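As promised in the previous annual report, we have extended the structural survey to additional targets. Below is the entry for ATP synthase subunit delta.
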Amino acid sequence: MSDLAVAKRYAVALFQIAKEQNLLTQMEEELQAIKQIFSEQKDLLAFLEHPKLSKSAKKEVIANSFSKLSEPIINTLFIMLEGHRTGEIKLMAEEFIQLANEENSIAEATVYTVRPLTDTEREAVSTAFAAKVGKRTLKINNIADSSIIGGIKLQIGNRIFDGSVSGKLDRLSKQLLS
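The corresponding structure token record, generated without further manual editing, is:
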């Protein structure tokens, strides 16, 4: 079974528990943190996957490191450890977040601008583009990128809305050359 399929199964099970216990928002925030930790702390994953270390030592590290997390998430981490699936923890967190976003009609967007957006600008971008993709709101990850010269470039999933000056110049250059 592929890593993605395994991660999806764990995420779906955890998502159902979250809905039943009315902990969807809390567990989504906790899994955002887990996703970030497993993205940044490669040593933690290496430790959890080390074949010579005992499962009890690994469980202790999980219990101590993630003691503030909800019980269903810690139990899921333990189950994944038992099943030698620690490599899929980050993927599972991403899948859960995607399920939670679908449930709440939210899309994640990466917005490239010359300078960081203000809260008012974030709200305006969210309102304008959420409707275009059929969602209620957008979670915006703003990246300052001086190479776009001006304007805005927005990516939601595999869709790109390019209203940047550099994008317009590229399109104009292609038109002139054809």
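Helices lie at 3-20, 24-40, 42-49, 55-65, 71-82, 89-103, 119-132, 165-177. Strands lie at 106-113, 137-144, 152-156, 159-162. These points will be discussed at the next consortium meeting with the crystallography subgroup.
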